[in-house]
Amino acid sequence: MAIILDGKSLAKNTESALSERVGRFKEKTGRAPQLATILVGDDPSSATYVKMKGNACARVGMLSVRIEMGKDTTTEQLVGKINALNADPLIDGILLQHPVPRQIDERAAFEAISIDKDVDGVTCLGFGLMSMGVDVYGSATPAGIMRLFDHYNIEIEGKHAVVVGRSPILGKPMAMMLLNRNATVTTCHSKTRNLSELIRQADIVVGALGKPEFIQSDWIKDGAVIIDAGYHPGGIGDIDLKAASLKASAYTPVPGGVGPMTISTLILQTMEAAEKSAGIKS
After folding, report:
1. Mean residue pLDDT across the chain
2. Which residues are catalytic?
3. Is residue 226 part of a domain?
4. Is this model's pTM higher than 0.85 or not?
């Protein structure tokens, strides 16, 4: 029977441990760790995600400073706000909720975030350092997936991993994290030829392309580890999990697999940034 990689359960356990770390941090510093969340515009899905992140902070005793900016905000205004947060010693982590309105240069805004406060792992500098094996805050979703691998003792070294998707905050950092752990990695995308044949060779499959149930169960070989990083209306992911899970040795459910680990990793990395800033060893 396949192992269910239960991100919801692991995230809950992480919050319990984080509550204790927050308590010790408060005793030593007299303050709580703070995550600044920036929401630009009026996208309801983005507002929901920001609220979920704020709730996660509250559950462990952290403070979440929510900053809302109008849909007509310019790149210069957003970068100015980020620079102010960079300079604020009480702010330990900065999250810019994406996507941002079309007139904003999202990459320029991401790059304005200080590397020490880039707890969502969105900067080019952070990606480059991570790729070279330097200890920095990784992109929250792939870093959360790596935590799932470790928690459930999923073997990575020497395995062939196929990552389907190449986004700068999921597919690309996922590939680098797996490569750094000695997997042989194939990165696929919308222009990849013979995609099904490549996936059939995979010991580990990561679906991160944003298309509902695009990866078919007959593309998955027996005993593969399946990571479904997608979420779509109706509670389905990027992989046909209902059938594919019957062939897998381990898989992430949708929902309850990868999603909870993203928020969990975000607040964990905020805690680490706060401790680092205060010179406290966890």
Report:
1. 97
2. 53, 97, 120
3. yes
4. yes
